[in-house]
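**User:** Everyone, produce a chain:

**Assistant:**
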Amino acid sequence: MVSSDQRRRQLAREKFERQQRRREEMRKKARRRNAVVAAALAVVLAAGGAVYASVQLTGRDTDSVDTAAGSSVAPSPDAPSPSPSTSPEPSMAVDTKAAYTMTLKTNVGDLVISMDAAKTPRTVNSFKHLADKKYFDGTKCHRLTTQGIFVLQCGDPQGDGTGGPGYNIPDENLTALGKAGPDGKATFKAGTVAMANTGSPNSGGSQFFLVYQDTQLPPTYTPFGTLDAAGLKAVQEVAKAGVEGGTGDGAPKKPVTIEKATVGKE
């Protein structure tokens, strides 16, 4: 006769196996989508058309980009919608009226980011939680864009745009960028640090992007921090080196590794 403890363990194991199968299916979809969008982007560049993109990311196993030449192309490089959260958002443990600093020690220098917990409490709380657990330590900034949008994207422990913490956090502080223009976009000024997402509301995870040159994007990405002058210069130097393969979107030719991330109260 199966005991209640044995039954619970069996159910837990079956649940874990289902989650693993779901993650693998998401990764397969991501790889297929990568191939489609890479081909579309190559056609656009060859035609000399303008390229517009938006940086998107979910909290788990998705990190996508919309690229268009006058019209929308399927999201890339990964899944088109957020995958389900598998763990709860961390409990609030920061002072919601305080300012915090996130310091990313990298191989290209320290990137110091000022964060305002009063405006983005749940975002700051998540970064504090993840940094304390050394989640970002030893991770690469996997993506650089140099055409249409100008950002360096980081925060994926997988290093390929598919990783996330297993939970999503809500959008915050979206009004800080002002109203969108006739094209539906607002200016993310150089030095802005914002959450990536899938394009769906409240789908942030751990991935974020550093804006190194004024960039037009829809005001749907939580702006939660500002990069200091030295950090901005370091990212601009990475951008000058370009993207691997000579494209406008991909792994930076000059690799950037976050050696250690810390978040502390100012």
Q: What stands out?
A: Confidence is low (pLDDT under 50) at residues 35-55, 57-84. The longest strand covers residues 257-265. Residues 4-265 form a domain with the Cyclophilin fold (CATH 2.40.100.10). The helical segments are 4-46, 121-132, 229-241.
